[in-house]
Each structure stands twice: as C-alpha cells, then as structure tokens.
Amino acid sequence: MPASARAWVACCRIGSSGRCRRPRKVPKKAPRPKRRPPKRRSRRARERSAVSTDRLTNEQLFERAQRVIPGGVNSPVRAFRAVGGTPRFITRAAGAFMWDAEDKRYIDYIGSWGPMILGHGHPAVLEAVQRAVTEGLSFGAPTEREIQLAETIVDLVPGIEQVRLVSSGTEAAMSAIRLARGATGRSKLIKFEGCYHGHADALLVKAGSGLATFGHPTSAGVPPEVVQHTLVLEYNNIEQLEAAFAQHGAALACVMIEPIAGNMNFVRAAMPFMKRLRELCTQHGALLVFDEVMTGFRVALGGAQSVYAAAIPGFAPDISVFGKVIGGGMPLAAFGTSKAIMQHLAPLGAVYQAGTLSGNPVATACGLATLTEIAKPGFFAALAARTRSLVDGLQQAARAADVPLAVDSEGGMFGFFFAAELPQHYNAVMATDKARFNRFFHAMLDRGVYLAPALYEAGFVSAAHTADDIAATIAAAREAFAA
Ligand SMILES: *Cc1c(COP(=O)(O)O)cnc(C)c1O
Description:
The chain is of the alpha/beta class. The chain has 15 helices and 18 strands. It folds into two domains: 79-121 and 377-482, Alpha-Beta Complex (Aspartate Aminotransferase, domain 1); 123-374, Aspartate Aminotransferase, domain 2.
C-alpha cells in the first residue's frame, strides 16, 4: 500500500469515496422546533411539479445515460437498437406491470428476461428478501441457505446430484464448459448458431466456412485462437451433427445447447434431433450440456429436460446450467451434474472455479422463495394455460387481419414470428418479417404492452398476468395488426 493511501485510511476510519476530512466535533443537537403540518397542495399542483421539476422524460434520461454509460445501457438489447426508438426507463413494477419515467404503465412480457415468473413484488419473495437483508448482505463464508437452494435444485431435477452456485448465467455456462473439458480431458466443443450461452470468449462464435473449419469470433476482442476449439452447427440439423461427430467425435469435450432456444425467439430442438444428439454424445464420450438458464424452472418445474424426458425414454443431459428464475430477480445462477463429474471441481479437483459473491445470502433467499412458490401444485399448469391463451389469441387476431403469424409456447415462455411456419433454425428466424415485427412492437408499446424489443427474443408470462391482462394484450394486438 502506498504511504499516501495509508494516510488516507488512517484519516478516514471508515473508507468512503468522498473527500478526506478531519472529523469535526458534532455539536449536540438542539431539540427541533415543532413543524406545522405542510399545507396540502392540490393534485394538479403536485402533478405539475412532478412532471416539470422532479422527472426527466425517457428521452432526457436516455441522453443523460449515453453521456456516462456506453449506448446508455448496461446490456445491449435494452438500447432498442433492433427496433429503433427510445428505451423506456423503468421506475417501478408491481405484479404484471411496469411503469416508465413518464408514469406510463405497461403489461410486462419481459419479466427481466425470465426471472420474474411470479410477477413483480410477490409478497413471499419480498418478505424473504427483506428478512435476509437484515441478517447480512454478504459473508464470504458458507451459509445454510446455500445448502437449501442446492437441495431444492437436486430434488427438482433428476440426474443432478450436486450444484455449484454462481452469480450470472454467463459465469455458469463458462464454468460448465471448463468442467466438461476438465472432466473429459478434451478441448473441442459444439454449439449451435442462434443459441446464446452468455458472453464468455469461447462462446462468442459464428460458424466457419465448413465443417472442417472451426468458428470465427462474433465479437472484437476475442482472439481467433480462443475460439479455435468451438464448432458451430445449425440448430435442428441432424446431418451436420452426424458429420461433425464423425470428424471430431473423439476430441469433443461437450455439446452445449439451449434445448428450447430462447435467444432466437422460441425454437424447439426437434425430438428426433435431440434423441440423435444424446446418442452421439454417449457414443463418443462427449458430455451433453443443457443451457437451461432461460428454460429452467420456466417451461416446466423440471426444466426443458423434463419435457424431452417425457418424450424420449431415459433422456437426461449430462450437465445442466441454470440462471434467471433460480435467482427470482437477483444475481444467481448454477450448474450441476453427477457427483462423479462435480468431483473435478475445486476444492476437490483440478478444475478451478470461484466467486466472491457466489451463493449470496440475499440472492439465495430470493431464489428459494421463488422456487417454493412455483413448486406448489398446479402452478405450471395454470401458467402454461395462460401463456397458451395469449399466443392463441395473438394468432387469431393476426388471422383476422390476414397477417401470417406462427406461435409457440411451453410453460411460461412463448414466441411469435411474422412467418407462415415456425422457423427451425437461426437463419430462418432472421428471415422472418423484421419490418413488420418492428412496427408491431412499437404499436404494442404505444398501447401499453411491453414485448421484447427484438424479433430474436422470447417472451415471458408470469403468474401475476390475469385473464384480463391477456385479453387487453390481444385487443391491443388486434389494433396493431390492422395498423
Ligand atoms: C440469459 C442467458 C444466459 C446468460 O445469463 P446472464 O445472467 O445474462 O449472464 C446464458 N444462457 C442462456 C440460455 C440465457 O438465456
């Protein structure tokens, strides 16, 4: 520590980012004079002052944000680049609704990109978080709540015997790949175009020119050498999959997949494709990694893997990655698998992985409360039915306006495409009608319905969305399709 810094610490016994000042003697407070209750202002006056003095518009906030935050946002999709226009700055949310800086209310179909499966401000979740906050924000030492959350995940997902908790989906996916490589002693991995697994270097890849060549980075700052072991294939393409295994099978550590892809809108891996993928992985000793950061505890209580297990006897992935819903809106993610594979992880094994805030006591309280609510009998049946009623309603409204619209949903997750049929892979998704989507998005936003601001994103319904909210959404869509 440099001498100047030490002096600073000595001077300010509690470090702060403010200027260093000598402690002043605080004069004993004189008793406050009793204040008269303030005069009640008229509602008009209060409203006027709220708009003119306190509040900036979305536009003004966006301008201000762009001065100090690149693009004005802390995650790119929030900038509305795909659809154009001004991002809404959210001030608060409750149940199925969010309010922006101009106090406009929206029915929220993003739900923080999945986590808010109970809606905003569920009382049981708030209570658990508030209690946890008073007990301490972070300890950097183990807690019982981490065990409870791990036990809950192990109970809910067959095939998982142990989990490690981390703070983001990116971190979980990155760690799962390191674990797969460490456990198999192999380097190569397969991912699929249009699947997103967070922004770890090795995963920011697009397909090379042929199967013999590995991928190219999709981001500046990722050296080609870092992605030289990553092979990118077309989703739902069995032929490519077989060719890739024939050529690289013995060198493959793992195949990572979003079983129902939510980062190219909503695309299911077809059953025959998934079945063949499982066979090939087993045959060649590659680990099948399910990235269920979005689908986990969202499409069903057992995640997308339970949907595939229901159709393919004995089906299970080797490693599962979770995030979003398991944190219930707080930074929390996890990866898990068999005890045998997890033994490779530090401190037991040679695969290093760590995190200062991993298993954070407030985040685990939030996640546990959320999982407790969604595990209640009938929760997913009701959520799935409500979500289905939304996409069915959208499709009927589109049909009435002679607009081609393909829809799908599973549990509380949905997708819709301005196309005659459901796309099966990334290029088909990107070939759907973008201009139409963007018009529809803004027409809905104007009418107080907040959908994901890009045609390649999925949508989310929460338990707080009522039949009336769905009906209001469909009524807005009827107008938007006609516009
Ligand atoms: C959101 C997401 C991630 C990344 O999670 P972060 O918490 O944003 O890092 C990874 N995989 C999938 C499938 C996701 O949807």
